Automatic annotation (TrEMBL):
High-level lineage: Eukaryota, Viridiplantae, Streptophyta, Embryophyta, Tracheophyta
Assembly, per entry: Part of the nuclear pore complex (NPC).
GO cellular component term, pick one: nuclear membrane
Transmembrane segments: none
Name of the molecule in the record: Nuclear pore complex protein
Stretches for region Disordered: 1-20, 476-500
A GO term for molecular function: structural constituent of nuclear pore
Subcellular locations according to the entry: Nucleus, Nuclear pore complex; Nucleus membrane
Highest taxon listed in the record's lineage: Eukaryota
GO biological process, one term: protein import into nucleus
Organism encoding this protein: Carex littledalei
Stored InterPro entries: Nup84/Nup107 (IPR007252)
Keywords: Membrane, mRNA transport, Nuclear pore complex, Nucleus, Protein transport, Translocation, Transport
Family designation: Belongs to the nucleoporin Nup84/Nup107 family.
Amino acid sequence: MEMEMEVDAPPSLFDPTNDTHREQYRRYRHRRRQSASSNVSPLLQGPVSRFSDASLLYEGNTIQRRPNSALLLEEIKQELETDDVDGMDGNTPLNSAMRRASIDSRASGEFNSSFGPARQTGMYSLQPIKGEEEDLSDEGSTFSLFASLLDSALQGLMSFQDLILQLEKTCRDVSESIRFGSTVRHRVVEDKFMRQKAKFLIDEAASWSLFWYLFGKGVSFEVSPPTSHQQACQFVRTDLMAEACVRIVLWLEGLASEALDLEKKVVRGSHVGSYLPSSGVWHHTQRFLRRKNYDPAIVQHVDFDAPTREEAKLISDDKAIFIIIFMGEQKQDELLLEDVWTLLKAGRLEEACELCSSAGQASATLCPFRGIDIFPSVEAMMRNGKSRTLQAIELEGRVGHQLRLWKWASFCASEKISEQDGGKYETAVYAVQCSNLKHVLPVCTDWESACWAMVKCWLDAQVDLHLSQLQKGGGAISYDRRSNEDEMSGSLSGGSEHMSLPPVSPGSWPYQILDQQPRDMSSLLQKLHSSDMVHEAVSRSCREQHRQIQMRLMLGDVSNLLDLLWSWISPSESDWDDNLRPQGDPEMMRFGAHLVLVLRYIIDVELKEVIREKLETIGDRILHLYVMYLFSQQHEEWVGVYASQLVRHLCVDLFVQMMELRLNSRMSVKHKLFRSAVQYLPFSSEDNSKACFEEIIDRVLSRSRETKLSKNDADMAEHHRLQSLEKAMVIQWLCFTPPSTIKDFQGISVMLLVKALMHSNILFREFALISMWRVPETPIGAHKLLAFLSEPLQQPKDNLLSLNDPDVSDNLHEFEDWHAYYCWDATYRKWLKAESENGVVPPDDLSSEEKDASIAFARQTLSSALALLIREGDPWLSAAQESAYNSTEHVFLELHAVAMLCLPSRECVAPDATHCAALTSALYSSVSEEVVLHRQLTVDVTISSEDSSCIEVILRCLAVEGDGLGFHEANDGGLLATVMADGFKGELNQFQFGVAMEISRIDAWYSDDDHLAGPPATYVVRGLCRRCCIPETILRCMQVAGYLSQAGDSVETSEKLIELVASADYGILHLFSQRQLQEFLSLQRDLMLHQMVLEEEAIALDA
């Protein structure tokens, strides 16, 4: 069976040679190695979570078919850099190994040495001291463990009831590791910090334990026949307050029991429960009695009081020992009873009875019914099983009669011992059996003990009163209170004629016992906080954070608890500006976040309705703050499991903000954030209350195109180049390979690629419009896009084309057109760069290689341009497409653009109202008045509200047949593209000459009469790009052709360009503006003149 489980385990978990988790264990540029024999978390003893730094090649049980090669190369590079630093940081291999071993020991609680036995022998005297670069504790692993547990619960791998228990166990394990697992000596302040953290985790474990007992522990049992114990259990089952008391008592006893187990584990030698007093252990006398010998002069028992009580003596060999030990008899009794008291607090009644028996003391004081536990809990009933002892006793002497006698006897004993100044633990042992609280609290010096004593005494009093009321009016099991009290009085007085019983209540219970009990849970906790009866340390502990948490859980006041947690961790007003670096206690943030999630999944529906608003509002604030803390600590892989539980708008806004802040981070960091989002959020969702990854990524893409303020307005071209790079970086979120373990992995991969193509084409259009300057610098944004998409598009496109969506194939075709355009553009700028470099060198000093390189770039520029422009039946960036609207519909076209006004020197012009009015008039005048009226053209130019250095241009016109309706055959973007093209080229008639609009963002769409946006009008922006890019491309080619003609090349290429412009088949001539045509003709004239000069020189040379 174990072998089958190992075979079914994922390779990334069971393969000890798998070294792809190295990033998770890398800190301070040193690697920490996990034990090769362990495939589980060292503290959790469970499998590694799915969202930890996973392998780049392994995804669950399969191997990725499309690994992100850039991400893989970055991992390899970082690993090589780490190896270099490990070997060059001045540390010897021995010290480096020792340091890694010490870090491993803190994380797992064990010291796994990296050295063999022979080398360890010589190292026992070494005492490693904490170095400056080492952390006090591995907080990352602690947060990872909690996130892993929560992830398992959210996936349904464990119930939330089990999650609570696992959280408690994890807190205890980590606390124990911090306290006892470290082999490194720390400074005083650091040691104090570690003890504080260990105590916080122990307190947190106690809070989780209480939460489980109150909300996670089920109750189910059947009651029959009617013994007093079963009647008490039935009462607890039906009374909410009594049930709460039972759960609290069990919780506190569980805490004490855990503390005993830890003490037994850590402290060697004698511990509570193993106490065997030296007095009374007389070996010779024991041997004599074991042989069944009878001698009236010899004691028959070996307890402390046997020689005095029986007026007998010991075997002669034991007498000397008895004389020495008798002097310490009273002290030994007190030590014994202290251990008994400790075991009672831990709920270990059976062990306490065994301890009494081993010391020769009767155990009837602790258990009146021969080993039957009478605590009204399910566990006690299960331990008792089908025992008929209590039933037989109570059927013989009335139900609850002997129990009442035992409690009265315990009460009288506690009062008598207290009056005689007996031992405080002996008094407490008797007093706790009868709810005599005033004699119990003096020995309770900590909060848990005092709370246990109060709740247990109150519970016992409630149960006793209930049993008395049942028996008083219960018919066959009723009893006469007066005769019963007389009988109890006679039984208890015995040989104490001078002892008088206290007055009793109607429930046959002393008034002074009932007067000590609280009215409700709130008054009980108030006594803990301010009563004179409790120890000062108890009152002081009530002010501790987890004590306040536990007290509110005991009250069931979840709403107030959430407010309290938020008040502790909420940032101050001065910290709100830096909202992704919260300043609260991270441990309390973690506890609060997990508590909120567990409350949402585990509490009853009725209670959830009462606190719904508070659980949603305050709970989301706590979760939001914890996610921000994880993000600020570079734990991007963990944020998804918590952020996915936020309300929709908070989750979307948070992921958008995190993605924007990590936009320029390392690829591996961005990949962790991407995985965290795509794993824990659905890709798309029909539920409006839940966030989805598609909404997040759409918001990120949209925000990336918003105008960014320019720090330096002197050079607009450079500003646009840098801004285009920031816009292009967003595409990388769409180029990561999603994990193959998520649902519909292939479909999500295709959808991401489709979005990447659509958004890339939008950016390509904008980048083309701002890269009209003839400068050597390449448009880095466009080439960054091409680099990001090169790998995804190298994969087979079958899945992409299988969607049968014309928009997908259209976007893929447009991407290929832009790819060809920017490849040509890069070649042209290489030639410009070569010419600019050659221009600063005297012609005679240029080498032939430099000249040949420039000529080669020029020839390559012309050849690639002709291939781009001359394409039969498939013109570059075709804008001829069928509209979604027919000719009978009344729709409008809108174009919105954000741009800057720039001079020919590339300096920015600060716009004002005068510029806006003049530009509006110039745009109107770019077409005839008849067209304005017929197409209902409107122009609106204003200063941008986001950036005062920009203007916003809004054009709107009526869609007509051939331009917005039907098939757009002109392939030039229609009326809106015609108006905007003159503005981009700086050729508006009634505007300042040479001042052009440098685009930052441009979009076009359909709209109705109410200005409601419809589908995008892509052909408008495509046609605008054709109007701007094609003429500029031809002019650049004429420039290059003129250079080549000077180098002796023929003018054949320039003749092809002239034919291309003049040909009606290509429809290029009308794309030129008047100034561009003049420049074209001027370049052609210069080219022909230079060619004529060359021909004349050649003729003269031949002559």
